[in-house]
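re the bet — no i am not wrong, look at it urself. input seq straight from the record:
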Amino acid sequence: MRSRRTIFRVLTISGIWFAIGSCGLFETREPNKPQTPSQGCRPLTSSPTAAVIPNVEDFYGRQAGVTCYTSLLDTAFIFHPDPQDSAQALPQTPYVGWDEVVEADVNSRIASQQDFLEVDFQAEYAPAVIAPDQEIRFYPYQLRVSFVGSAPIVRYTGKADLTFKRGSDGQWRITNWVDHRGMVSDSTWGLLRASERP
């Protein structure tokens, strides 16, 4: 009697494990492309946190968002990489002269090659510095991307110190982006940028 129960239990457990294994529950999943934002580029006259940051999250590196992202960049825009990223790139100097033209070009290159991209600015890690017509904000970020023809999603994390200025037209734009490595050993957004600069 015991042997029949043991055989029955073994067969039942084996059947359950077979069913779980064959249902696809443990298969590698393909990421879904982020959906196109339901609203267009937010007006830059509201504020950096209500317009500029959400526009970067929704439109950075996306073919349909190239014009929106470019509109966020002030003509005085400068990107400053993390010092370790600069040292890692030597003897090349991809960060030299990184202005709004270079930033817009790199964004377009990423947009034309990616098949998945997600940007997330998290809660500020330091208090904002706010003055009339200028704000400096401090965001940890995570960017996940995969490119056409390469399967894995690569994660970039770090901290961005962003300076926003309101122009004479009343629109807020990014004038300064200082990139920092985070607490983990992931690559920074600056390394992604450098890899896509021609």
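see?? The first strand starts at residue 73 and ends at 80. told u. also Confidence is low (pLDDT under 50) at residues 25-29. so pay up
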